[in-house]
Design goal:
Elements (H helix, E strand, L loop, with lengths): L2 E5 L6 E5 L3 H18 L6 H8 L3 H13 L3 E3 L5 E3 L1 H8 L2 H20 L2 E8 L2 E8 L21 H8 L3 H10 L13 H10 L6 E4 L6 E7 L7 E8 L6 H20 L1
Antiparallel strand pairs: 1-2, 3-4, 5-6, 5-9, 7-8, 8-9
Helix pairs in contact: 1-9, 2-3, 5-9
Length: 264
């Protein structure tokens, strides 16, 4: 962890860390690992993978652990790795159906792990779209008292998606959805919003500290590859704001496996 972004307000104060590598870079290396392992029908060792891919063993070990946990790789009794069953299924079956099922499974696991409602959203055809959400009676989703499509300036997931757009696309969005004050903490000045989005680091989480709804704090991390614009987000009561930082770190770590499952 190499950089810290500190947010302060009259409400909870939350400090979050992020890695410069980010989930997109992790996925790029993970895909190279899978392709290389797939080319060795009888398995390949971590040392050989490191040499062939040109990735240090220390970093490769993290990727291998993630790929084994997600089921994309299996370890051999005598050492080494082969491709796992999900790799075959996703490569030969109904990818859209398998991807949707994987998304629901990952969101549910994340919900239980971070003890918060978890969301996956995309920016499609100029609008914020929440694709899926995993919640429960103990971890209820945020009350959508204002349509998320009209509240991108205030919600963590909306700001995360807008941060991935170019300047012209952001202007177009604000021209169609004029920022409205939803709580006393909501920023509505378009110039200020644009400046903040310009300064948002690519792999850093975006926060909503009671800007969309009083009593709720949220965070989102980018889940993007190619031309797609997406985000993974969570929400919890403001009384649990002290749990936001570790929850965001977990969200960031799991963004790469989720993105990988959608890429294959």
């Amino acid at each position: 962890m190499v950089k810290r972004k500190r947010h302060t307000s009259r409400g909870p104060t939350v400090a979050t860390d992020h890695r410069q590598s980010g989930p997109v870079y992790a996925v790029e290396y993970a895909l190279r690992v899978l392709e290389t392992v797939d080319s060795h029908r009888h398995g390949v060792t971590a040392e050989q993978l490191s040499r062939e891919i040109g990735v240090p063993l220390s970093y490769l070990a993290q990727l291998l652990t993630m790929l084994r946990r997600e089921g994309y790789l299996a370890s051999l009794p005598g050492g080494g790795y082969v491709t796992g069953e999900p790799r075959v299924l996703l490569g030969s079956g109904d990818q859209e159906s398998a991807g949707s099922e994987k998304l629901r499974t990952v969101l549910a696991e994340l919900r239980d792990e971070v003890d918060a409602a978890v969301y996956f959203a995309r920016y499609e055809e100029g609008e914020v779209t929440v694709v899926d959400c995993a919640d429960s009676p103990q971890t209820p989703r945020v009350n959508e008292w204002v349509d998320f499509r009209s509240a991108a300036h205030a919600s963590a997931v909306g700001k995360c998606l807008l941060a991935q757009l170019d300047h012209a696309s952001r202007l177009d969005h604000f021209a169609r959805h004029r920022p409205a004050r939803l709580t006393s903490r909501t920023e509505v000045d378009i110039e200020v919003l644009l400046a903040r989005l310009d300064r948002q680091p690519a792999s850093a989480p975006t926060l909503d500290l009671q800007e969309y709804a009083v009593g709720t704090v949220c965070a989102a991390v980018p889940v993007t590859i190619g031309k797609s614009v997406a985000a993974l987000a969570l929400s919890m009561p403001s009384s649990s704001a002290h749990r936001l930082r570790p929850a965001v770190e977990t969200l960031h770590e799991r963004a790469a496996p989720l993105l990988l499952s959608m890429t294959l």
